[in-house]
Amino acid sequence: MSSKTVILVGGPSKGTRFRPLSLDIPKLLFPIAGKPMIYHHIEAAAKVPEMKEIILIGFFKETVLRKFIEETSKQLNISIRYINEDKVLGTAGGLFSFREQILEGSPKNIFVLHSDICCAFPLKDLLDFHNQHGRICTIMGTEIESKYANQYGCLVRDEKTAELLHYAEKPETFVSNLINCGVYVFSPQFFDVMGKTMVDLRTSGQNINTDYPEITRKGFDSERLRLEQDIFVPLAGTGTISVFPYIGFWRQIKNAGASVYCQELYLNHYAKTKPEVLKKADNIIGNVIIDPTASVDPTALIGPDVYIGPNVKIGKGVRIIHSIVLDQTEIKDHACVIYSIIGWQSLVGVWARIEGIPNYTPFLYSQDKRKGVTIFGSGAQANGEIIVSNCIVMPHKQLDRNYNNEIIL
Amino acid sequence: MKALILVGGFGTRLRPLTLSKPKPIVEFANKAMILHQIEALCKIGVNEVVLAVNYRPQLMSAYLQPYEEKLGIKISYSHETVPLGTAGPLALARDLLNDGEPFFVLNSDIICDFPFADLLAFHKNHGGEGTIMVTKVEEPSKYGVVVYKEETGEILKFVEKPQVYVGNKINAGVYIFNPSILDRIQPKPTSIEKEIFPAMAADNQLYCMQLEGFWMDVGQPKDFLSGMGLYLNSLKSKQPELLSTGTGIIGPVLIDPSSVIEPGCLIGPNVTIGPNCVIQEGARLINTTVLEGTTIGKNSWIKSTIIGWNSSIGKWVRMENTSVLGEDVHVSDELYINGGKILPHKSITSSIPEPEIIM
């Protein structure tokens, strides 16, 4: 029962909503709860028995991911490989065109994960369910509040047989409150079905694609194929796909600010599954991860839901709540950081207040521009005693006055 | 000699502080506003001060009674049942004021060096019926400007909010009059500035003297804080021994000796801390008044704020932008208060990111 995992990582142009952080690091490597975004996926995949290989498919330069792949591969003792799509193929197009590499060694099951999601990745349960129901594809679905469901792929499932009866991607009207989590498991035969569907589509010429500007720019490519709209939609109700009902935390990591909320979910999960990674001390509240190389003054009060990265320096009487503080940043005495992401090598001066205003409903990121997580790009600096509230600060800016609700270029 | 202080009404501009105390006994630089004036009057031999009040005189008399003995001065109250403006109260208090000598009249909201001796000498020298003090301002177009002869100080006219520059001296709200002024005023609502002064000037009976040094009408929070800064600055040269110095202090700062400032704080400039306050470790105060019995939590940052009596501010709180907290207000840890006006006895548990009144 050997398995492989494919993680669809996209490319630089897919990370624009993650700016300014994606100016310094590809979105998929941004640390959430102290680990790169896709480390959580890989960690879960590596735990599945007989996991032979993890394949990342995307269109980043190979060099960007090399170090992460080497380190993670060693750390989790699993083979990880990156396949660079020379041309942008779409989610299913990539899978299909690299099917030989994916199916090499004859894995029985192929997990397919989107990179920009956060959940508990119960891959073993998903696999058991997949095998029980005997279809060649299983989609992990989760129920959310009806009013948010049309932001996602909506699944209609036969309650008795668990079959996917209908699939609608971001429908305008209500279809179902069971949504696609972006976590799948395929049997090898599913690649044949994908191939056939692709041929059908090509003949009918119906796959007009507006979601991938790269594709539109490069003109028609016969191999482009989106997993959700082009494959799941026509296959729903044909006895091909099952839906695994997942109960637990799930969220899309849509933009940089979402990392703060997703971090909170992962830290809660860690509290139950591996509490040893969480720091316990008198000046820590709730779930907090502090890199061992960081120095935190004992009079600083940290938490809940905070990550403090390597070589960060936290001064006397500092307060940090619901935030991510990245490598080599210095937070000076008495400063207060709330709902913020402080990028690499940044500086927050004495008595400065860096504050975001949380804006999430559970499954929809609010459009209210007066609310949001405050984000410092790398090397940004806030002078002492200022307040920066609900702002995005581009890398290497030095702030010497108060700012509110601004993008600071 | 006698003096009349125009105390007036509810002090609405200084709310929420004046919801707990009449404005004249709200502490300005750790001393009731009216005591700054009464003490200065005492120094030049005024032996009776009449307070023209139209709101809760008993609260004030209870507060001021001990000072009568301490300062050796008689304090009387002239209670207006209807507001009489700025001149009417003089007529109402006619019998209390008229002892045949010149008497002083003051607006209660103003703070300055009160050079009453110089004013008296100047007044006696020119022999006219009245003298008003004038002060130089940057933007005369906001005020009533006094136009006078440079050589003698004789006032020619008053120009209300001039659009064309006619001068930069305005009425400072400190006067001295001969008792004969009382014949010009009836005990009915009358404005001394708009009705009585122009008539006196027309009779060549009104002079002015320029006030040296600082001056501020502290009737509203923003000016209360600016006035405090000016006052503390003047203390630097006049009574430096009253001001705090040392590590963690950026002068001028006035701290009541009964208050505790924990280590690691940075206080000043322009800060007044009243009696029995505690400023916890690592707090930062700038341009702020903290009234009696208040505690400021660790690492909080407070600028341009007035904090009412017996309040408590949590840790890592940021307050700024002329926030005013009434009596017994409690602010939870880590909040941000931007220009909040908070009424007495409130507990604040969420931030006030934009200026707002919290009922």
Describe the structure.
Chain B: Residues 249-358 form the Mannose-1-phosphate guanyltransferase C-terminal domain. Chain B: Its EC number is 2.7.7.13. Chain B: InterPro entries: GMPPB_C, GMPPB_N, Mannose-1P_guanyltransferase, NTP_transferase_dom, Nucleotide-diphossugar_trans. Chain B: Keywords: GTP-binding, Nucleotide-binding, Nucleotidyltransferase, Transferase. The complex is a heterodimer of chains A (409) and B (359). By secondary structure, chain A is of the alpha/beta class. Helix content of chain A is 24%, strand content 29%. The longest helix of chain A has 16 residues, at 189-204. Chain B has helices at residues 33-43, 57-71, 88-92, 94-97, 116-126, 192-202, 221-238; strands spanning 2-8, 27-28, 31-32, 48-53, 74-79, 103-107, 110-112, 130-136, 144-148, 155-160, 169-177, 206-210, 215-217, 253-255, 260-261, 266-267, 271-273, 278-279, 284-286, 288-290, 295-296, 301-303, 305-307, 312-313, 318-320, 323-325, 330-331, 336-338, 340-342, 347-348, 356-358. Chain B folds into 2 domains: 2-217, Alpha-Beta Complex (Spore Coat Polysaccharide Biosynthesis Protein SpsA, Chain A); 221-357, 3 Solenoid (UDP N-Acetylglucosamine Acyltransferase, domain 1). In chain B, helix 2 links the parallel strand 4 (48-53) and strand 5. The longest helix of chain B has 18 residues, at 221-238. Chain B contains 7 helices and 31 strands. The chains are: A alpha/beta (409), B alpha/beta (359). Chain A binds chain B through residues 299, 301, 316-319, 321, 333-334, 336, 338, 350-351, 353, 355, 357, 385, 387, 389, 404, and chain B through 264, 281-282, 284, 286, 298-299, 301, 303, 315-316, 318, 320, 334, 336, 353.
